[in-house]
Structures are given as structure tokens and as C-alpha cells.
Amino acid sequence: MNRIIDDYIRSGEERTRADKVEKLAARFSERAAMHDREGSFPFENFADLHEAGYLKITVPQEFDGDGLTLYDLVMLQERLAYGDGSTALAVGWHIGQILHLRTSRKWPEAIFAELCRSVVSDGAMINTFASEASSGSPSRGGKPETTAIPTEGGWLITGRKTYSTLSPILDRFVVTAYIPDEEGTADFLVHRTDRVSLVDTWDTLGMRATGSHDVVLDGVFVDKDMRLSEKGIDDGGGWFLHIPACYIGIAMAARDYALDFARSYRPNHMNEPIAALPYVQHSIGEMEIELRTARSLLYAAADRWDREIDNRPALKPELGMAKYVATNNAIKVVDLAMRIVGAASLERKRPLERFYRDVRAGLHNPPMDSSVLHTLAGAALAEMPVDRGNS
């Protein structure tokens, strides 16, 4: 029988790509414990991703990228996270935003084209640094304290950004800044200079190897052309599905570890492994329900987003629900896996305790649970009421 992770492969081409990424994931898995323990950034993983062509999977084909779909992205990210959640989440922000820029076309064409060519030729990556300690999550409307002051030929940007994933490796990034003269915010493409410094602040419970340190900008000059337009097309934010794909991949790894343990572990008072015990089989069945439900929603949402191009903004409730269900179900799957393995699951030499810590980070990635519930409620209340006549 095929593994459950293969259920959504639809073609030989997808199988080939999946096999290639699984080899990367196996390599990253061997390094994951060390980087988690040290809280270090896995530069070697990103060198491997560049060499394998992974950084360009969502770059448009016109720039020699692969131009893959959201469905493809979900499938590959899930597999990458099976090996190392931190690496998958970090690179997901890059390939996801490239997909978003490709479909929304909200950047000036010349700037986007230069970025794409740099990704393909040099392995450049991109991320947006919007969060700040004082303003909270930008997804909840926090106003940045980072400022952009006009100067001759451009802007001077000063401020400090938190949760700056990929910051150790990026040579350029997007910063959201407040413009006092306009009493509004804008995005700016910043190239790294000596006016940009990294503060080693990332020391967290989970996802310890994403390099999400603080970035300090001290009067960084940004050319006037690097103020990014926000016009573009509303693509519904489908690219955020890289997040639930990551956490489902971690849950899948925990599930498989627990299955292997249940098949092989036989206490000396038993004649067969614990997989024969009814309560263990019950727990396995619960894992399957949580995992299969989440994956069916995740892949259905990705497929609809790919196909329903003109309807993408209307898919936001479904996209949010896919993230909500995937993240919360992934946490349940890892918990069940640890219950099957028992106290041994807490040992640092086993990966389950890392999976447990990593998977909880999904609760703090956008969209947040409360935002998803609010969106779903709004969509329900906006429906036309049924005309029941005089009944």
C-alpha cells in the first residue's frame, strides 16, 4: 500500500518532484536536532535547497522558474517539514511570497523581474518584516513604529522589526514603515547595508532554527523606486497555505514515528507489540481522523485556489478554515503520538519532543484562530436569508 503522504499525488511529474524533496527532507532531518538544540540557522540546508532548485519553484517560467501551483507548493512543503519544520517554515515564507507576487502583480514589474532573476541565478530569497514588539501582529492592524522619512532621491528608514524569519541569510527584504508626512504606511524593498544590523534574539520553545531575530534599521537609505506599490490584484492570500502544510508535515512525521514504535515495542509481559492493544489502535484511529480531515481540507482549498482564479478573494473563509483545522489537528496528532510512545516521547534523543514544541508555533502564524472564526462568521451572516414565507 502507498503511504498516506502519497494520497494526493496526481501524476508522474508530481511523484518525481516529491521524491526529490523527500531526499532533501531526509538530509535535513539528520541536522534538525543539532540546530534545534543550538538555536542555530541551517545555512547548509539553504545551500542544498538552492542547489536543488527549490528556491525557484514558484518563480514564473518566463524568468526560468518552475511556476508551480499552490497545490504543488503544499505537497512539497508538507514533505520538507516532515524532515525539518524550521527549514520548511522559513523557506515557505520565501516561496509563498514569490507565488503571491506572481499572482497579485502588486510590485512594479521591473523590480519583480530583478528579484526573480536573482532567485534563479544566485539563490536570493525574500521575506517581509512587519512585526514589532510594540505594535503586535500586523495582521491585527498594528501600526508600525518604524518610520520612513523622505530625503533626496529616496527614504531614510529607522526602526526595529521582530520575528524576522530568514534574517541571517537575506540580502534584501521588505519592510513595512509609517510615513509621518502621509499619516499612512507603505512597504519598501531594503537591500542590506552596514545600516542594517541583526540582534540575536530568537530563543524560543519551538521552531528554533528559523533565524527569526530582530532586525534594526538605522537610517537606511532606500531609493525612491523601492517604495512598493500595493495596487495589484487581490489573490485571496492563498500563499499562506504554506503554513498549514508545514505543520501537517510535522504531524505526519510524529504519526509515523508512533506507528513504528507501536509495531516494534513489546514489553516483556506481552507476546506481541503494543500495536495489538485496543487502546493503542484507538489512538492510531484518532490520529488518522485528525490527519486525514486536515489534509482533505488543505488540498481541496489549494486546488480550488488554483482553478478558481477569478473567485480567489471569495475563498478567504475556506483558506482560513484549512489553516485553522490543519494547525489544531496537527497539535492533536502530535499529542496522540506522544501518548502512544509514552514517557519515552519526552526524551531529548527522540524527535517527538521537538515535534511537540514546533507544532505549537502554528497557533501564532497568520491567520490566527480568532481571525479565522471571525471571517467564517462574517461570511455566514452575509449570506442571503432563506425566504420562509409565512411559515
TrEMBL record:
Documented EC number(s): 1.-.-.-
Domain (Acyl-CoA dehydrogenase/oxidase C-terminal): residue spans on this chain: 244-361
UniProt entry keywords in alphabetical sequence: FAD, Flavoprotein, Oxidoreductase
GO molecular function, one term: oxidoreductase activity
Cofactor dependence: FAD
Annotated ranges, domain Acyl-CoA dehydrogenase/oxidase N-terminal: 13-97
UniProt keyword Oxidoreductase present: yes
Disordered: annotated span: 131-151
Domain Acyl-CoA oxidase/dehydrogenase middle: 130-220
UniProt similarity note: Belongs to the acyl-CoA dehydrogenase family.
Name the record gives this protein: Acyl-CoA dehydrogenase family protein
Source organism (scientific name): Paenibacillus mendelii
